[in-house]
Amino acid sequence: MRNDPASTAAAVLARAGGPGNVTSVDHCMTRLRLGVAEPAAVDAEGLRALPGVLGVVTDGAGVQIVLGPGVVEEVTARAEALVREAGPAPARPAGPDAGPDAGVGAGAGAAAPRREATPVKALLRRIANVFVPLIPALIGCGVLAGLNGLLLNSGLLPALTPALTAVASGFMALIAVFVGHNTAKEFGGTPVLGGAVAAVVVYPGVAKVTAFGVHLVPGQGGVLGALAAALLATRVEKWCRGRVPGALDVLLTPTVTVLVSGLATLYGLMYAAGVVAAAIGVAADWLLATTGPAAGLILGGLFLPLVMLGLHQALIPIHTTLIAQQGYTVLLPLLAMAGAGQVGAALAVYVRLRHDVPLRTTIRSALPAGLLGVGEPLIYGVSLPLGRPFVTACAGGAAGGAFVGFFAMLGDKVGATAIGPSGWALFPLLAGNRGPMTAAAVYGGGLLTGYAVGFAATYLFGFTDRSRAATPA
Length: 473
Prior knowledge:
By secondary structure, the chain is α+β, with helices and mostly antiparallel strands. It folds into 3 domains: about 5-115, Gyrase A, domain 2, CATH 3.30.1360; about 135-285, no CATH class; about 295-470, no CATH class. Helix content is about 65%, strand content about 5%. The chain has 18 helices and 8 strands. The strands form 3 sheets. It has a 4-stranded antiparallel β-sheet. A two-stranded antiparallel sheet has the order 5-6. Strands 7-8 form a two-stranded antiparallel sheet. Helix 15 (about 375-385) packs across helix 16. The longest helix has about 60 residues, at about 245-310. The radius of gyration is 23 Å and the shape is globular. The chain starts with a helix and ends with a helix.
């Protein structure tokens, strides 16, 4: 039976110190993310005990509650309404962890805020905040693009495929505008000005502009160019706000912002971002073509720690750049193998610790989500608390990544047309240079390898005598 979102939101806020203790409410694909004024007032154990809560992560002055796809959006909306009714939260003291990004991201535990909020991690989280809201559109358009590809290859419904092409491709053609809008919003600028400057990147008329001796191409630089353009626009806008008289602000500030940032985008940022974007594509292809198994082993093996630290979302701009360039990202299927290793490790824990009823109950409830690529419940509820199974799960992910990387080195590239899902949920989004069936076969083989190695490594090496002895009889 599905839990009522309103009741869940009220119960979550009560255990987060009350609505008045909450400074910000946000969510990603699976987690409700709350910024809190007093971290000590958060009852993490009480949150974990709530029905429907799959996991809890505390991080400095914030807490993340893993609720799963779909549910998190409904609970977030109810939580936002309750926080608004309660009024503003008490002001937080100034410090290195203060700011709109405080409490965003994952962590291994309730580490000190000063240590968690490093400048690099804070920047990566803010960049992730730009792209995470775009994931639902990327998923929807990616699934439609995959369906349209199947129809084109099979010759079925030829009258429908042009319409599907338009629906699936429209968002990707204008994604720069959305990136610019979200960038300005995240970094304190006017969102529509960020979108307006970023729109220069995809405007067809830029083909008539020459920069560095060559004609620009519409879309050159992609999301990286849009991100840079909107960041510059935000800086220019803030500079103007502090210097333009109030009577002229409404006229001059937008004009100067768009003019200066737009020209800088045309005569510098687009070209530079295009060079960087092209280098990302070349590097990804070279990496898999020359060091496929090794690259897959490293990427698949290290992705779970990135998820644990909340840094995995910083890869979204790279995925998006590859999708815009090649039609799919070859990195996501490799990284998705980490989830397969996690599932295999959880199954081994289920078999070995058969007398630990609470832990086995957690595994049974979290395993379906893990198979569909939502790994946080298994990470924070099973493998990470036990220690060794987290390491052996990484070994399973490394093995699955090496499997997919080996076939990439042989010329069978596997990619995803959108980002967000992984596990078995990624199958509808798979594409490759040898067709979707070959891509699905290679990816499926990688998943099975990750399951098997994660299970075997955990079964053989994932437990100490002490941990087995601590299991209730």
